[in-house]
């Protein structure tokens, strides 16, 4: 990385890396930057509690990677941690240079039930389908053929409504040291190359600035109508969160209110 170039005033594409805790987001930052700047957890708890930027050179294009807090399932496994969702939404809203790419990191082999909800929440509702989104699958170190895993599981993603602009099945760790090298060195370097090519081919040329979520307002209009006239009316925010993201009504109501509060300057 050339420091002088990275410190220039030219705006760089913002790439938001999101997913569950322990999915490998920080490992991907380290892979792409060629350093160990992002702290990596050894288990599933995760160690990133706030969004952190990392400036990197991706095949000659300078980008800012944002490592974000994990979107974990709630106690009942029904909805992601609301604090993490609100934090990520606030980050996307406040980026003055806009957003150019979303990178959704999912750890194999078990695909959590929250994956399609998180996908739809950020792709369809918050970013309104305006930002390219790629799917990065980690945890495939022991797979004989990483790409075969994608072919095997492709139909499951499609059934869940997940159609990424591109995907990468990667090895995000070099593994244990053995014989003067790391056991997954070759797979790691191949993965880094695949991921860089994917980013360059999918990043949005003109960044998209996420507007204030107008649909939140209809939630409170609906609440007002109900309170004054006693009419049961489902606001647009709740309807989208319930119908599109399949959230329980109580969770959807809390999330809509929290996101609306995040829009207040």
UniProtKB/TrEMBL annotation:
Residues 15-107 form the G domain. One of its GO terms (molecular function) is GTP binding. InterPro entries: GTP-bd, P-loop_NTPase. It comes from the Eukaryota. SUPFAM superfamilies: P-loop containing nucleoside triphosphate hydrolases. It holds the Pfam family MMR_HSR1. This is G domain-containing protein.
